Amino acid sequence: MKPSLQAFFLVAAVFFSIYATNRKMPETTSSEFYNPVLASSVGESGAYSPDTRNEENIPGGIAMPELKINTALAKESLGNTVFFRLRPEERWPLASLTKLMTAVIALENIPYNTERDDLIRRMMVISDNGAAETLADTLGLEQWLALMNAKAKTLAMHGTGFSDASGLSYLNQSTADDVDKLVRYILQKHPEIFEWSRIPSVTVNGKTVPNINEFAGHPDFLGGKTGFTDEASGNLVTIWRTSRGPITIIVLGTPDKSERFIQTEKLFAWLSQRFRL
Questions:
Q1: Is residue 217 part of a domain?
Q2: Is position 265 within any domain?
Q3: Number of domains in the chain
Q4: Cβ(145)–Cβ(162) under 8 Å?
Q5: pLDDT tens, the chain, 277 aa long
Q6: What is the 3-state secondary structure (H, E, C) of the chain?
Q7: Is residue 23 part of a domain?
C-alpha cells in the first residue's frame, strides 16, 4: 500500500475513535416513567424483577417491587394515564370478575325490584354464584349470554367472551385492557355496583355474611371485585381514591386467593410513592 493511502486510513481511524468516544446516548424519554416494562425484566414465573441498573430513571429512586402477577394494569379510572402495565392484552380466565358484566346486564335488562338489587349486592359482596345464575334465569341463559357478549362488543372489549353468568367456566376470558373498559363504563353508568361492593356484609337466608374483599372498609377503597378459580387463580379489580383522582388496579393470575390482595397492596404502595398519589 502506498504511504499516502496508509496515512489516510490512519487519520480516518483516529477520527472515528474520537467520534465514538464522545458521542452521547439519547436521553431517556418521559414516557418510560409511565411504562415500567421498559425498566424491568419479566421472569419465567411472570413476576417483575426490578432492574437496579435503571433505578436512576425512576423518580426519587424508588425501586419497583417484585410482583407475582400474570397480567396487570394500573391507570386513571376515568382518564388515560397508565401508571403500570404487565401484558395487559393477554387473555386470562375472568373467574368471578364475570359478575361485573352480569351486574350491568341485570341493571339494564331487568326492571327495578328489591330482589334484583339484593342479588347484585350478594354478587358484589360475597361473589354469590347462585345469585348470578338466578339473575340469568330471569331471561334464560342463552339470551343472557347473548346480551353479555353483545355488551362486550359494544364496549370494544375485543378480547372478551362469556360462557356463563358467574365466571365458573374457564371459557369466560378477557384481558386487563378490556376489564378496564368495563370498569370505566360501570363508573360512568352504574356507579352503584361499586358502591355496593364496599358494604360490610349481606344477609342470605337470614344469616349475615361478611364481605370477602379484604379492602372493604379501607377509607381509600372505592370499590372492586374479587375472582378465583383453579384455572384463573387469584384475580382482583380495585378502585382507589388518590390525590390525582380515582385509579383502577387490575391484577390477574396471582398465585392464590390471599396473594391477590397482597400483590395489589404492594403495587398500590409503590405507585403511591412513585407518582405521589
A1: yes
A2: yes
A3: 1
A4: yes
A5: 544 444 444 444 444 343 333 333 232 222 222 233 322 222 222 333 333 223 333 445 578 889 999 999 999 999 999 999 999 999 999 999 999 999 999 999 999 999 999 999 999 999 999 999 999 999 999 999 999 999 999 999 999 999 999 999 999 999 999 999 999 999 999 999 999 999 999 999 999 999 999 999 999 999 999 999 999 999 999 999 999 999 999 999 999 999 999 999 999 999 999 999 9
A6: CCHHHHHHHHHHHHHHHHHHHHCCCCCCCHHHHHCHHHHEEECCCCCEEECHHHHHHCHHHCCCCCECCCEEEEEECCCCCEEEEECCCCCEECHHHHHHHHHHHHHHHCCCCHHHHHHHHHHHHHCCHHHHHHHHHCCCHHHHHHHHHHHHHHCCCCCCECCCCCCCCCCCEECHHHHHHHHHHHHHHCCHHHHHCCCCEEEECCEEEECCCCCCCCCCEEEEEEEEECCCEEEEEEEECCCCCCEEEEEEEECCHHHHHHHHHHHHHHHHHHCCC
A7: no
CATH number at residue 117: 3.40.710.10
pTM (2 d.p.): 0.80
What is the extent of the structural domain holding 131? 92-274
Q: How far is CA 168 from the centre of its chain?
A: 20
